[in-house]
Write a structure and sequence with these properties.
Layout: E1 5-8, E2 13-19, E3 24-31, H1 38-52, E4 55-63, H2 65-78, E5 86-90, E6 99-108, E7 113-117, E8 120-127, E9 131-139, H3 148-164, E10 173-180, H4 183-200, E11 210-215, E12 224-233, E13 239-243, E14 261-265, E15 269-277, H5 292-309, E16 317-324, H6 332-339, E17 347-351, E18 361-370
């Protein structure tokens, strides 16, 4: 019997394949080759997607500002006509090179419907007989000139509007990403605006999404751009629910409105979406201030505990993003994994500010496993 979840590993490329009932999705992770510029990485991503089969639902590029812009321009040509959302983000490479990497999400066996906003693709909608799914990306505020908090609120409203246009609602969201320019200057504004939006839209009464809020500038110069995943169950076999962290308090305890993780099962496979996770003590305070090795170790233990609580392990990871504040710390996560006897993750690693100035490391990941029959 064909395995439901497989991961094909390479030094610079990984492809995770998840086989649902009657359709397949794939997650491609590319790390930049030595000396690879933006256009070359874009062409490699387009080639990898074509070889994998299926249709692209969304993609992300990470690199230096001018290089990631060049990568995005090349991908416009390679993937023309592009009907899926692309996020081109200032994710600083760690060795001074042009690009950090790229990730793409593909669907094979289901038709994809583009989700447009102002004529621009910001999402993909697809469905089987169990649920409707949406992948959103590159959703920004109505005006990049507004105050930071207003831009955050507007981007959240934009996500809600995009979903409303295809008959879904914000309450269907399982996970969000907020890539924020000058994050440390406006993280309080972000939290206040998100709390206000969630209160007004009664998100707290339902499923509070998992999330990552991390530094990352965008080509339009807006305070932030967002991505999200959403699901609308069509029968009782698809059940998203919040997963807590065995080693950390709720993020709500210190004013940040996201769940530590979100699990979604369709009766065949289970997806665990782990939020951006950093060195936070059970009290909500930063742990191991100034000590990178200890921050990485605690963070990895926290993520590991979440995985174990759901019957998974790091070996079930299908995609990850790793953020380090200091380039000299780039190898610490892999060194920790190696010490535990675990292979490197299918991840792109980049330099980025985390939500507190004293946090030096953050990781997010998705893990998939077959449902026990």
């Amino acid at each position: 019997m064909t395995a439901r979840v497989t991961l094909d590993r390479g030094e610079f490329a990984d492809t995770a394949t998840i086989r649902h009932e009657g359709w397949t999705e794939k997650h491609i992770t590319l790390r930049a080759l030595p000396g690879e510029d933006g256009p070359a990485l874009a062409r490699r991503l387009a080639s990898a997607c074509a070889a994998a089969g299926g249709s692209v639902a969304d993609a992300m590029l990470f690199g230096r500002r001018q290089d990631v812009d060049a990568a995005a321009a090349t991908l416009e040509v390679e993937a023309a006509p592009r009907t899926w959302p692309l996020m081109a983000l200032d994710g600083h490479p760690l060795d001074g090179s042009a690009m950090a990497g790229a990730q793409a999400h593909l669907i094979d066996g289901l038709a994809l419907k583009p989700i447009l906003q102002g004529g621009r693709p910001v999402g993909s909608l697809y469905a089987d007989d169990r649920a409707r799914y949406a992948s959103l990306a590159d959703v920004g505020p109505a005006s990049g000139a507004a105050p930071a908090g207003d831009q955050v609120y507007s981007a959240l409203a934009g996500v809600d509007e995009a979903l409303s246009g295809v008959g879904m609602a914000f309450g269907n969201i399982t996970r969000t990403w907020l890539f924020v320019d000058r994050l440390l200057e406006c993280y309080d504004d972000l939290n206040q605006a998100r709390n206000r939006f969630f209160t007004e839209r009664r998100v707290f009464d339902g499923l509070v999404p998992a999330s990552t809020g991390i530094a990352g500038a965008n080509p339009r110069g807006e305070t932030l751009v967002m991505a999200a995943t959403a699901v609308e169950a069509l029968d009782g076999r698809v059940t998203p629910f919040r997963v807590g962290s065995p080693l950390q308090c709720s993020a709500h305890d210190y004013g940040s409105s996201f769940s530590r993780a979100m699990e979604l099962t369709d009766g065949v496979v289970t997806r665990l979406q782990v939020s951006g996770t950093a060195s936070i003590a059970p009290s909500g305070a930063t742990a191991h201030v100034g000590r990178s090795v200890e921050q990485v170790e605690l963070t990895m233990r926290v993520v590991e505990a979440i995985l174990i609580s759901r019957g998974m392990s790091f070996a079930d990871t299908t995609r990850a993003l790793i953020y380090v504040k200091r380039p000299e710390d780039a190898l610490l996560p892999e060194q920790w994994l190696k010490a535990q006897g675990v292979d490197p993750l299918p991840a792109v690693t980049m330099e980025a500010d985390v939500c507190r100035d004293d946090l030096l490391f953050e990781i997010e990941l998705d893990a998939w496993a077959a449902v026990d029959c």
